[in-house]
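Hey, can you fold this one?
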Amino acid sequence: MDLHTVNFIEAVKSRDNIKLNAPIKVGYDAALVSHMGNVAFKTGNRIYWDAASGKFKEEDANKLITANYQNNWKLPML
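Sure. Predicted structure:
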């Protein structure tokens, strides 16, 4: 994992995607499956992903897609 992280950061800094050891889509898919596991665990149900809409087919699962920040913290916009 550390080598992939270093490789990704180097590619971002150089703005050269040819330096990537794996396509960005591979990382996206791995992260998506991990998040789906967390959402299924939190809802206690089997969930289904609709790739066309970018949402789950279950409304209670969709509530967990967006971040829920605490103490009035907001993500800085650059």
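Helices lie at 2-14, 24-43, 59-62. Let me know if you want another pass with a different chain boundary.
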